[in-house]
Request: fold
Amino acid sequence: MKVFVGLLAAVALAACNGAQEAPGDATNAPDAAAVVDSGVFSMPYLQRDLDNGLRVIIVPTDYPDIVTIQVPVQTGSRNEVEPGKSGFAHFFEHMMFRGTEKYPADEYLNIYKKAGANQNAYTTDDFTNYHAVFTKADLEKIIEVEADRFMNLRYSEDVFRTEALAVKGEYLKNSSNPISRGYERIRDLSFNTHTYSHTTMGFLEDIEPMPEQFEYSKLFFDRWYRPEKTAVILVGDLDAEATFAMVEKYWGKWERGDYVADIPQEGPLNGPIYDHVQWDAPTQPWLLVGFRGPAFEPEKVDMPAIDVISSIYFSDSSELYRKLVLEEQSVDQLLTYFPNRKDPNVLMVYARLTDVAQTAAVEQAIRETLATARSELVSVKKLAETKSRLKYGFTANLDNSGSIGSTLASFVQFERTPETINTLYRSYDALTPEAILEVANRYFVDDGRVIVTLSNDEAISGIDGMASIDDLVRPLSAAPAEQLADTAPAIASRAVASTDIAVPVEIVAQPAAGSPLIDVSILVHSGAAMDPPGKKGLAALTAAMLTDAGSEDFSIQEINAAMYPIASGFSAQVDKEMTRLSGQVHRDNLDVWYRLASSQLLSPGWREQDFKRVRTQLVNAVRTSLVGNNDEELGKEVLYSQIYGPSHPYGSLNEGHSADIAALTLDDVQRFYRQHYTIRNITLGLAGGYPETFAARLSSDLQALPEGTRQSLQLPQPKPLAANKAVIVDKETTSVAVSFGFPIDLKRGDKDWVALWLVRSWLGEHRNSTGQLYGRIREARGMNYGNYAYIEYFPRGMFQFQPDTNLARQQQIFQVWLRPLRNNNDAQFATRTALFELNTLIEKGMSEQDFVNTRSYLAKYVSLLMDGQSRQLGYALDSGFYGIDDFSDYVRKELDSMTLADVNRVIRENLRTDNMQYVFVSRDADDLRDRLVSGRASPMQYDAAQPEEVIAEDRMIEALPIVFDEQNVSVIDAEAVFQ
Reply:
């Protein structure tokens, strides 16, 4: 199901509305303040247009100190109407960070660094959104610099050409995932004339000549970056009128434009259409079934009904999911992508298959499901549950100003008003089973269908995409919708247990009576480091059996069905010394959620069929999702395994090794559960608006577990390297991933940890353009997408901006991650550049100005790390592990007393550039091995003239010695990794 936003119920906003008065009557008049008092979006907001047509929307909240600015511009890949210009809207998003005469790029980034801000942008089919989260002390400065770049952007042709290389690097970073190729192909087949034929990234044949498009880029800016096509949204700890005055002051001189694009209209598809994509690297097969769908017109029934169809027929509570994923286990991922778009787009159902021989059967099951949607009325009860699911799913995302702002941006981009949300939800509320049936028959038809399959084979037997849905549709013969039965189980509350507590339960509590959301974390002090030899993956498999395999009382299908209307769940995260089972639920639904989650934890189902399914899914997570489809995460995880080695408890993958997982038994899992899931080995985390009696209820119910003891590890020190070592993962891929590092003796809570954390931030803050490595490799040379440094484990980095909590460890490594490079030469040069910068830092230390700026940045940035109820609870649990105070207090206290001398001492004592472990993922491993062993130079070539200082630096870097003995550079086939 598409995760989409909608209902903003008054009860969900009680915590952030506070005493803010309604600025005026409910209205959308351009020069009026507005508050909605009858729609689903009920937060008071100020909305006015400046004289130039800029729409300004300001939403005050009571979340202290934090503010977000969101600037959606009504241009995306849809607007790329000229031939050869696909991907240009996304490329131009990059250029918007290149500075102005008043605030050149370096100064612009420095302002954001001083503000401790999270800042970025993204481009979609229909719009481009620029966003930042920061503390309110910097509000006026942020408003000023944003206005300046939207009005006065300036860059040279050389800078333009350099950035074009980085855009190609971003294209390459997704290239190892076959679903990206499948999605690109299904869109290309679905359109002949409309610009939706290409993805936001564009076609590679258009990306490669982008360096030659400098003059066109100025035309693009002039056409689209205009006030009448833009909104400025500010959400947070704000005074609405004072904030509006700031926006008017800095944005009021922006001049209107008059360009209107002639978007080509698409004719009938005349399907069905079928194509097969052969994938070179090992992968599981994919089946993608697409249909020409409706435009997003919230006042009409079409797209709201499509959303409901997605949820009812394809979510994890659906009959299709039960059949394919739970019972037959022919599919391990079943998803839909039904996006809201300005013009008719592709509605896509896609499945990852466990066996290519099942492709035709899975395709038939999807056709039969859609035929059912066209033949039978959904029950009134199921429809009501779906509307409930939409509501509660949305409220779960609204526990901070940043989430509210990003939600508004996704809707404001259509008609530049939050009222789009109210219009949409009035349409949801008005939906009937008959209307849903009619919409299903309008769009899920043979002549609007495109099917793409993807596998390692030249073709897939038994499927040609021509089998009919229309022929399966039956005449409507169902009873009136009100009489249709529903099979979802009724979940009664378990009788409240005795309050006698024999064994005390450790609880970290963060009550917030005004919050409508409740977070529950069950932190088990055991993880992958406790996996026995030959059973790597046991901790992960045990956690998956508790959260995705049902209980004695309820099957997993019954649990999914009961969780469906409350839009909640029970999930697991496994690390070396921690396993977190958690869920977030609206307080309206706490009893239902707790009945389900507690039964999963305290009385697991241990069904053999579920065990086989979950075990297969875990193997596929290793073999396909990681090794097959994610070069970046693969390189980072191989680095950890190489640094610690197979005999160290940290030396294996958290998910396990595929051969070990395949050999695990249900007895193994039950034994691990009895040993580690004990009262004294658990810490409970509670946050939000939970009842006062809830903690006692949890403590009492947990008495059903064994008392046990707190598990702990006595870790050996990782074996130090006597020389540089490298592992090259040989894999069919279009780019080269690079990671390198070494163990460090510091962990959070140690005396010098915050100082080293500061150094890491200056060197390469994650997904942040202010880092030194980013500046020298990406910004100055345009070599790749990003370059970052870490002193704590940070998985899933390509998908998120902030680290996950509850990954606490006794031992950590220093790591540099260079996001994919175009070829071996670039990878070698980028690695040398990173070492050059690291050497310079060690030899010269950090400058006083860099130290002051980074310290100021982190003192504010720490508030953003802890923004939101869930993250605050996670950091509190981690602080217990490390024995420190509140994380933000701990960091700020250390920063306040820190000196530059302290930092430079910590650099000298903890960083180095010799005796490191390197990991590369490359398609030409032999060439890369020869480069490393021979020390071959790696000269750079550019599409644009570079400043003389860069060229001079390149001459030093291209031959920078990185000494590798031949026996210390090994090549391993990707298929053998984590086997």
Summary: The longest strand covers residues 812-821. Confidence is low (pLDDT under 50) at residues 1-38.
